[in-house]
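Project outcomes to date are best conveyed with an example. Our students and postdoctoral researchers have been running inverse folding experiments weekly, and each run begins with a structure described purely in tokens. The record below, which covers 141 residues, was selected by the lab manager from last quarter's runs and is presented without edits.
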């Protein structure tokens, strides 16, 4: 089963129904729910989502949405080693570096799915947009 790290932007596309990206994000999350793929997040992603969702919804509604999200995904552990790698990296964005090294050093993640592929140029993992990822699955079938 394919194991993917879903970046914050993909989840936000779904939760905020951002056109034209929401459909691809919804399809990927549906695949996580049906266990066709295994989606992963980090605690940083959850924290960022809480902060952004809280701008437009009550604490209770945000907790409800995040609880649903983590019921269909897994959370990767970020430790000191990953933080140090991110701090010493060539990544321009610390948050992206942290996501990347959490996924890389976990050792089980196959790829990162994000709309900001340019921010992950330093990654040793394959990086795809949601649309590209879905097209690659369709070309295999």
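After processing, the design step wrote out the following sequence:
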């Amino acid at each position: 089963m394919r194991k993917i790290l879903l970046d914050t932007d993909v989840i936000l596309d779904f939760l905020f129904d951002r056109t034209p990206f929401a459909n691809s994000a919804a399809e990927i999350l549906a695949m996580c729910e049906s266990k066709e793929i295994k989606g992963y997040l980090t605690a940083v992603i959850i924290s960022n989502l809480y902060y952004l969702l809280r701008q437009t919804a009550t604490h209770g509604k945000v907790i409800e949405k995040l609880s649903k999200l983590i019921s269909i995904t897994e959370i990767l552990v970020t430790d000191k080693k990953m933080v140090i790698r991110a701090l010493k990296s060539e990544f321009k964005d610390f948050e992206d570096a942290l996501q990347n090294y959490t996924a890389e050093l976990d050792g089980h993640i196959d790829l990162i799915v994000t709309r900001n592929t340019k921010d992950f140029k330093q990654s040793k993992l394959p990086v795809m947009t949601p649309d590209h990822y879905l097209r690659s699955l369709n070309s295999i079938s």
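The helical segments are 8-15, 22-33, 43-54, 59-72, 80-87, 94-106, 130-140. The chain has one domain: 3-132. The training component of this project remains on track.
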